[in-house]
Amino acid sequence: MVELARADPSEAGARRGSLVDEAYAALKRAIRDTVFPPGYQGSEQEIAVRLGMSRTPVHEAIIRLQEDGLVRVLSKRGVLICPLAPQDMREIYEVVIAVESMAAELLAALPEPVRAAAADELEAAAAAMDEALAHDDLPGWAEADDLFHRLLVERCGNGRLRRIAQTVTDQAHRARMLTLKLRARPAGSAQAHRLIIAAVRAGDAGEAHRCARAHRVAARDEIVPLIEHIGLRQL
Fold first, then answer.
1. Under 8 Å between Cβ of 144 and 193
2. Cα–Cα distance measured from residue 78 to residue 127, given in angstroms and rounded to the nearest whole number
3. Which domains does the chain have, with CATH numbers?
4. pLDDT digits 0-9 by tens, 13-58
5. H or E element: which one contains 168?
6. What sign results for the dihedral spanned by CA atoms 163, 167, 173, 179?
7. Do 143 and 162 touch, CB atoms closer than 8 A?
8. For the segment 68-120, what is each residue's pLDDT rounded down to a tens digit?
């Protein structure tokens, strides 16, 4: 009798974890880019079909996204993509301002080789923004802009700041995508980003904090009043 090889439980668990991670990333991306718009309500099966994935990892991804505040599981009524009110966006930007200004300060205080490498990554993201804007590729610009701000936090060396930032930046990105074509051409972001990069390269923590704060305050003061002006009740 031929003895069948038994599957390694650790390998099965790793595959399952990988599928859940993929489902989590795919659904988060769909929410961030408003493929599933604010207020959308559907069953787990419908969401899984639209993502082209099986239901089990999507179910576990939804549980994680509920912890992130992006979805809400409704008993016997499926899953709701959590809408955000203008006041929610104001509060989100207040958190973003605090987190990113501190992240920039911490990054600028790191040893020179570390902050130089981070500054190179930030510069590459800024260059990608310039390239996208030159071709009137606003979604591409938004993705490169999002990468810049994520790198700023991820490279600062503070894991707790990174975890705090993850949820609020996802929510801020959704507002950015919804208002992108309603705002003025975002040409000023490049200069603001390069001021942050210069402060990081120079190791000037105070200036890095100031520049990062001023940049996000300007974004808040443009986007939140615009949302209120056009009468968006949720986004």
1. no
2. 42
3. 9-81 (1.10.10.10), 86-229 (1.20.120.530)
4. 455 568 899 999 999 888 887 788 888 999 999 999 999 999 999 9
5. helix 159-179
6. negative
7. no
8. 888 899 988 899 998 877 788 888 889 999 999 999 999 999 999 999 999 99
